[in-house]
Amino acid sequence: MSEKKIRILIAKPGLDGHDRGAKFVARALRDAGMEVIYTGLRQTPESIANAAVQEDVDAVGLSILSGAHNTLLPKVVELLKAKGAGDILVFGGGVIPEDDIPGLKEQGIAAVFTPGTPSDQFIKFIKENIRK
Amino acid sequence: MSISEKHAKWRDGAYKKTIEKFPERKKEFKSSWGDTVEPVYVPGFEDPNYEAKLGFPGEYPFARGVQPTMYRGKFWTMRQYAGFGTAEESNKRYKFLLDQGQTGLSVAFDLPTQIGYDSDHSMSDGEVGKVGVAIDSLRDMETLFDGIPLGKVSTSMTINATASVLLSMYVAVAEKQGFKPDELDGTIQNDILKEYIARGTYRFPPKPSMRIITDIFDFCSKSVPKWNTISISGYHIREAGSNAVQEVAFTLADGLAYVDAAIKTGLPVDSFAPRLSFFFNAHNDLLEEVAKFRAARRLWAKLMKERFNAGPKSQMLRFHTQTAGCTLTAQQPDNNIVRVAIQTLAAVLGGTQSLHTNSRDEALALPTEESVRIALRTQQIVAYESGVADTVDPLAGSYYVEELTDRIEAKAAAYIKRIDELGGMVSAIEKGYPQQEIQDAAYRYQKEIESTERIVVGTNKFQIKEQPPKNLLRVDRSIQVAQIKKIHAIKSERDNDLVKRRLAEVKKAAGGTDNLMPKILDAVKAYATLGEIVGEMVGVYGEHKESVVL
Fold first, then answer.
1. Cβ atoms B355, B79 nearer than 8 A
2. Burial of B442 from C-beta contacts in 10 A (0-12 / 13-18 / 19+)
3. Mean pLDDT of chain A
4. Is the Cβ pair B115, A26 closer than 8 Å?
5. Pairing mode of beta strands B354-356, B77-78
6. Are A25 and A122 contacting, i.e. CB atoms less than 8 angstroms apart?
7. Distance between CA atoms of A124 and A115, rounded to whole angstroms?
8. Which residues make beta-bridge pairs with B294?
9. If you ran DSSP here, which 8-state letter would residue B486 be given?
10. Where are the domains of chain A?
11. Long-range contact list for B365-368, CB < 8 A, 24+ apart?
């Protein structure tokens, strides 16, 4: 029996245009055998949550470098819960100060990967933590 | 004529004329043992290719620099990009920087301002004041430059999709301070093509965006003649992960697209091309970067001369440089000071006209005042202590640097040819060509880091256990609330009938062929907000949707 492929949505919430990291992560996950959907820039939390549900993904990766993470990341989690999709794993990445990470985790962001994180680290994290 | 005869002719001609008008920094430049340092050094043997390939500073093909004396006359402009939170806070930072010996201003706007949303728009939630200052109306701009005489400083504004509105606000503030538009000196980035390729703060689709840009060229050539109307930017292309050749190629290809568009609207090339400026990245590979700047200068001069029959002022590639943000590491952040010092040398040895040096903590957050001071001091040390500014283009003639210069130029020219075949840069972007090329290079680069084929000190080698960094600069959410209050206040104080009429004029011009700029300026003066003005334009032009390339 072949294993079902892991499906992931990589999204850029907010207005920032820095997508080098998001695109790298998307390609690295694809190379690791996952099915990756990348939203492109300037997505609202609503459009991200809708896409996650429609595409029936196992995880959502949110990339943000503008400093709006404390506002936008928890909103995505909230909206997923409201849609009955609270079991989708949500993780973040980008320029996010260490001090903000505990607060984000409390609000349901499973992990935050800051600059310099090797790809095997987030790949492993996703494999171990998605809904089974 | 031998090279030494040509050298003598240059010294007695162009060089002498320049120093009569603009004396050099010192009466004499000397080595540590007292010998005179010459303005420029040339080969001591006959090289038949010398003049065509390198020539003399200030002369075609400008490989050795755009001015005869370069930094012997005056140093590059030290210009730190800054802005965050409210106009009041940013105003304070500008005054601090001017006090520290900075010689020009560089304004960072927050993302809603760059894209054209007012602070009270739902898309602005969480972004207000974060990566730059929030500007909603002329009132904010008045606060931003309070006590800074705009006729006496040069100001660079990183603004693209909404450049027409922010430039209008700048002109309006200056007028209120008593300065005429023709006294103003500065730059707007205004380079929309690289927003589609690499930076992402576009709003309108490419075609109307190009029309707005040519309107600005035309308006400034008549009313704000000292203004640099565009800063054609390779910086973000490199930050997105391109290599040095792609940075040069795609930037110059963008430049050619702007020149083509302006000529098509009937502007003579020499009426606007001398006001085009460029913006490059200074990355880690010192000698490769020096060669890159020299190659870009030479290739642009040739393209302008050969394609457009442009005059010498239009052939000159003048550029701003910023050290490479993407090379900064979150790990052991003080190491970034050293990286920035090397990148500073690259920019200066490459002949930049102005420079922003990044601060050590920028991989973590916006820089603190202390970090910004070290970054500025880095430039001052290179300028005043290193000696590299005492002779023009000191690395010329190095076998390696000249070979690199030739190769970068040739490879960039090949890319430009390919883009021509695709129908020019606008159509190449629509096809996703430069985006794909950049992404492939970015992916390779990151893979090399992961496999440790490429070493990043402190990140994939020589790591230590570190405490999380302290004292990072934060922008409070209360700024959004304060900014929204200001919008409400302005909307209740202004003459709303006048605003309505002026916005209708903007809409009419956007749909017609009249130059948009005077209409936008009138709307700004009536305190129409940025979001209102851009909203009218969106109504006519629509919005750009990214075609995702992975």
1. yes
2. buried
3. 94
4. no
5. parallel
6. yes
7. 17
8. none
9. H
10. 7-129
11. B365/A67, B365/A95, B365/A97, B365/B472, B365/B473, B365/B474, B366/A67, B366/B84, B366/B131, B366/B472, B366/B473, B366/B475, B367/B473, B368/B471, B368/B472, B368/B473
Percent of chain B at pLDDT exceeding 70: 100
Cα-Cα-Cα-Cα torsion B282, B284, B288, B289, nearest 10 degrees, comes to: 10
Amino acid at B267: L
Half-sphere exposure of A86 (CA within 13 A, CB side): 6
pLDDT at A2: 56
Question: How is residue B425 written in tokens?
Answer: 């840069």
Integer CA distances (angstroms), B394 to B287, B388, B389, in order = 12, 7, 9
Closest residue on chain B to A100 (Cα): B474
Using the structure block, give the residue that is written with the tokens 């106009």.
B87
Question: ipTM of this complex > 0.85?
Answer: yes
* pLDDT tens, position by position, B186-199: 999 999 999 999 99
Which residues in chain B have their CB less than 8 angstroms from residue A17's CB? 195, 198-201
Q: What is the pLDDT of residue B476?
A: 81
Second-level CATH architecture of B70-76+149-163+179-450: Alpha-Beta Barrel (3.20)
Q: State chain B's mean pLDDT as an integer.
A: 96
In B, minimum Cα distance to A25 occurs at B443
CA distance A46 to A79: 7
Quick one: tokens of A62? 């949110």
A71 to chain B: which residues are within 8 Å by CB?
125-126, 477
Distance of residue A38 Cα from the nearest chain B Cα, in angstroms: 8
Q: Which of B37, B127, B430 is nearest to A66 (CA)?
A: B127
Contact criterion met (CB < 8 Å) for A116 and B459 = yes
Residue labelled with tokens 């409400």 = B488
Say if A47 is an interface residue toward chain B (CB within 8 Å).
Answer: no
Closest to B234 (Cα-Cα) out of B146, B123, B168, B317: B317
pLDDT range class, residue B458, cuts 50, 70, 90: very high
Chain B residues with CB inside 8 Å of A41's CB?
200, 546
Whether chain B has a CB inside 8 Å of the CB on A24: the answer is yes
**Rounded-to-integer distance, Cα B45 and Cα B4, Å:** 9
Nearest residue in B to A39, CA atom: B548
This prediction has a pTM of 0.94
The CA distance from B190 to B208, in Å, is 13
* A37 part of contact set with chain B, CB < 8 Å: no
pLDDT tens column, B463-499: 999 988 877 888 888 999 999 999 999 999 999 999 9
CATH number of A7-129: 3.40.50.280
- Domain boundaries of chain B, sorted by first residue: 3-53, 70-76+149-163+179-450
Task: Mark yes or no for CB contact B200/A42 under 8 Å.
Answer: yes
The model's pLDDT over A36-74, given as tens digits with 9 standing for 90+, comes to: 999 999 999 999 999 999 999 999 999 999 889 999 999
pLDDT of B278 strictly over 80: yes
Say whether B127 and A118 touch across the interface (CB within 8 A). no
Does the structure show a pLDDT above 70 at A1?
Answer: no
- Measured CA angle at B434 (ends B117, A30), to 5 deg: 85
Residue B455 has pLDDT above 60, yes or no: yes
Written as six digits, the tokens of B548 are 């995702």
Among candidate residues A73, A79, A56, the one with its CA nearest the CA of residue A6: A56
- Secondary element (H or E) of residue B188: strand B185-188
Q: How far is CA B347 from the centre of its chain?
A: 13
Candidate from B130, B363, B450 with C-beta closest to A66: B130
